[in-house]
Design brief:
This protein has about 150 residues and is an alpha+beta fold. It folds into two domains: about 60 residues, Ribosomal Protein L9, domain 1; about 80 residues, Ribosomal Protein L9, domain 2, CATH 3.10.430.100. The chain has three helices and nine strands. The strands form three sheets. A four-stranded mixed beta sheet has the order 4-9-8-6. The chain has a three-stranded antiparallel beta sheet with strand order 2-1-3, with helices on one face. The longest helix has about 35 residues.
Length: about 150
C-alpha cells in the first residue's frame, strides 16, 4: 500500500514523502492516527505542489541571504574602544560588540554566534571578521577599530 506521510514518522520517513508500507500497518496504524493518507492521484499532486512551493521559497530565501551577504561586505564598520597610547585596547572587541554595531549599521538583527574572528581584536586598526549568514553563505566584514575620544 502506498501512503503519503502527513507527519514525520520515526524509522519510516518525513512529512510529504510517499512510502510503500504493509497494508495492515497503513490501514490500522498510520491512517487512523492521521500520520499518513492513502496515495491517491490528488494526494500525489498535492505533494508535488508542496515540493515546488518549498523549492521556490528556498530559492527566494537563498537570494535574500546572498543580498544580505553583499550588504555586509559593502558596509565598512567602525568600532570605538578604549585604548592606550600605543594602540593597545583595554580589553578586546568581542563578537557581541561587532554584532551590535553591525545590527545598527544594517538595520537588521545579527547574532553574535554568526560572527567568526580569526583572533581576538586587541589593537586599534583595520581587521576582518567572517559573518555566517546561512549554512553555505558567508561574508567577509571589514571593520576598523578606532580609539575612543
Amino acid at each position: 500500500m502506498k501512503v503519503v506521510l502527513r507527519k514525520d514518522v520515526p524509522s519510516l520517513g518525513k512529512t510529504g514523502e510517499v512510502k510503500e508500507v504493509a497494508d495492515g500497518y497503513g490501514r490500522n496504524y498510520l491512517i487512523p492516527r492521521g500520520l499518513a493518507a492513502p496515495a491517491t492521484k490528488t494526494a500525489l499532486q498535492n505533494v508535488e505542489a508542496r515540493k515546488a512551493a518549498a523549492a521556490r521559497h528556498q530559492t527566494q530565501l537563498e537570494g535574500e541571504h546572498r543580498a544580505l551577504a553583499q550588504r555586509i561586505e559593502a558596509t565598512p564598520l567602525v568600532i570605538h574602544a578604549h585604548s592606550g597610547e600605543q594602540g593597545r585596547l583595554y580589553g578586546s572587541v568581542t563578537s557581541a560588540d561587532i554584532a551590535e554595531a553591525l545590527s545598527k549599521a544594517l538595520g537588521q538583527s545579527v547574532d553574535k554566534h554568526q560572527i567568526e574572528l580569526e583572533e581576538h581584536i586587541r589593537h586599534v586598526g583595520p581587521h576582518t571578521a567572517r559573518v555566517h549568514v546561512a549554512p553555505h553563505i558567508s561574508a567577509t566584514l571589514k571593520l576598523t577599530v578606532e580609539p575612543e575620544r
